[in-house]
Request: fold
Amino acid sequence: MLSSAGSVPASLGERVHELAAERVRPMVAGEIPLLSVELPEPFRAVFTTRWDSPHLSEARPFDLRDEAGCAARGILAGVLGCLAGGADPDPVLVSPQQVHGVRVAGAAEYMREGTKAPCDGLVVNPGLDAGLAALLVFADCVPVILVGEVDAALVHGGWRGLLDGIVQQGAATMTGPPGLAVIGPSIGPCCYQVDSQLTAGFRRRFGSEIVPREGYLDLWEVATKAAGEVGVARQNVVNPRLCTMCNRDLFFSHRADGAGTGRHGAALWATGV
Ligand SMILES: [Zn+2]
Reply:
């Protein structure tokens, strides 16, 4: 059953892991149920949920001919403007084509590029990216937000990107080292069944803890270890532990729903700048 627009399913808050509940809170904004992520000022982030219609994207979030996706992004921009208190104009959403690569760009830098090459991570710097909000879309892959003193990054971590170093690349593109990481709704160790070749590759790179049981991979632990490699202590990794496959009434799941499923979003921006 899909959640209806305008209401947060009563159980959404209960499903957020207690260790993340202080920073990741369910709310309704502009009739859209979402998870608001409390970050150090001036940064803000949200994770959207499945909402009735229009979806953030049916398949091609970056395609301006995708009318439903465009309409949803227009609504979302308004929601982000409201969350910022309405003092700023609604931010412009920067939503690149994602290809499971490791390219990360500044939000304004990406907007200036003529080619708009695919990009799986965006950095938001309040000084350079005023008025812009990074938006990446997901259906099982892991959204990872890194927050530092000066700027913050949002990256798209599928297995390929995590193995190839998208989190590390996000940190390297920031001005200074991150001190906080947030992992968004994504497929959990409970459901992410993969072949033995893949688990072997991850085990070699990240150690045996990322294989919770044979045939399964813990991408949350991979993201946590990757964040650790760039200086984020484990206790500063916020993970609501929301598995998209277990919670497919709230989130899109490529594994559960098939290739034609929609996408929920993660948005990151700076307010009051
Ligand atoms: Zn699960």
